[in-house]
Amino acid sequence: MIKKLNQSNKEIAHQIFTIFQNSYNIEAELIGTLNFPPLMRSTKDIENSDTLFYGFSEKGGLAAIIEVDIADRHLEINSLTVDPRYFRKGIANKLITYILEIFDYSKASVETAVVNAPAINLYKKHGFVEYKRWTPSHGIEKVAMLID
């Protein structure tokens, strides 16, 4: 089941934080870095965020999170994380499908690490195409993808 989450609630923010930490630790290993900016995000940062969070629950527990922002009909996927206990169950696919269906957007965008082939392939499956590559100051080469 997918539902909108109220991240300003301390308990929910902590649940989001826990899934972020569990998932992003594995992504940092995949990328081969110890300096992974998403891991620096605190529970307080999540609580105070103006973005929208949607969660996928399974068996009463939160299994995955998608974080989005929409402005001027531009839908931006800021994060998509699945708790490692729920990997390879199609949950990330369900969250992307859900978000692309519920919002009225003229374009949608997402960024990920160039070496994160599973994420890139998943986004391509939903019609995202690469439009930019760059290396920010933290040194992890990124790719930006767009549905336009």
TrEMBL record:
Record's keyword terms, sorted: Transferase
Which GO molecular function terms does the record list? Answer: acyltransferase activity, transferring groups other than amino-acyl groups
Extract the CDD domains matched here. Answer: NAT_SF (cd04301)
Q: What positions does the domain N-acetyltransferase occupy?
A: 1-148
Keyword Transferase among record annotations:
yes
> Which InterPro entries does the entry mention?
Acyl_CoA_acyltransferase (IPR016181), GNAT_dom (IPR000182)
- Tell me what this protein is called: GCN5-related N-acetyltransferase
Q: Does the keyword Transferase apply?
A: yes
Q: Which organism is it from?
A: Colwellia psychrerythraea (Vibrio psychroerythus)
Q: One Pfam annotation, family name?
A: Acetyltransf_1
Residue ranges of coiled coil: none
